[in-house]
Amino acid sequence: MAAGIITLVPVAATGTGELDPRIAAFRQRKFGMFVHWGPYSQASVEASWPIMEPTPKWPISEKNYVGLARTFNPTAFDPDALVELARSAGQKYMVFTTKHHDGFCMFDSMYTDYKITESPYGKDIVRMLSDACARHDLPLGFYYSPPDLHHPGFRDTSKPASTNWGGEPQRPEWASYLAYMELQLSELLGRYGPVETIWFDGLHHQEKYDGQRFIDLIRHLQPMATVNDRIGTVGDYVTPEQFTPNRIPTKGVPFAGTDTRVQERLVQGVPDPNSFQDWETCMTINNTWAYNSRDHEFKSARDLIRTAVEVFSRGGNFLLNIGPKPDGTIPSEFRERLGEIGNWMAANGESVYGTTYGPIQGQRGYRTTAKDGDLFVHILDMPPGRLTLPGWGRKVGAVRLLADKRPLNFIQSGTGVDIDLTGIIPDPAVTVLEVYVT
Q1: What is the architecture of the domain spanning 358-437?
Q2: Is the pTM here over 0.85, yes or no?
């Protein structure tokens, strides 16, 4: 993973002007689990980057990094437990790293021996996980890296990866690499059941991958799969990394990032639905995508919930990453935070799933989402006594505290709605109100 340029792409629609069912499903799910895992977890280093940009932060040579595949044996991996963890956290889909930039495949590809079934473990992890997702009805998507440092068609592998990790499309071998990509994607799209998304991570100069070729392949083999924006051509959604946009993304307009500490940068205003840009923020729980025993800077569950609310209130999806340990188990810090998020989602999920951005934007103390005309108010900073919402052209019929369905008194005037918050104990993360309109 690496932060990159945000490519703006159009919202997919059918020929009748109706929303494409792929996009409708994407918008419904809202919250997903990202999983970065591979032989690199044994060394507590980031996926691929230690051999792309060597630094003292990642004390491993390219030779030793590549050699990790010979010792990777995650005997404690339980695919059902991983899927159940996602479901208990309220996550409605999963995206798994089938191949990172290093080229190691977590599936039994016929076209390389640099793969999980040639490791001591010997089992096809993608097969195991796809079967578990099917058992538990959790949609599964595949992260697939167009860069491949292990393939001689991608780069001259006689040289250090740090010298040519961007690929060498000027070499005659490049065509063989694109053919390899097509064969592997055909395996992923054809062997493992329904695919929720193909999540490319093309890094720089993505035009070299002839992206439309692969979009067409995906559309042919998995018509219901979405595709992200990192292969140099039109996709279904954009992918800000480790940040949230400071406004609701719209087609053709670049956006800046922000976080919950910089509220003054938030932008007011609500776009026309036809100009809305589908998007998904991906984010780590600590500072690294892969398992790292030295990285103890874990975000709190409260901060993660608040970040999720920032995303949902601007119409986006939130893809939250975990990095399993070398043996396949999940670090307790991840499990604990996902458990707390799951508790919040169990009480407040109605304000998340199937919602879109709310009609009130740019406020300092709260965020809004909307569904079927009703409004959900996510209070970040509980005001004393009452909350005043500006008018948004709708008549309010009732207000209640979402977590316990308690009705709340309110007064609507020409300038807005005053909601009585007397006696409400704030949720430690975010308190949610449901506002019914007539």
Answers
A1: Sandwich (2.60)
A2: yes
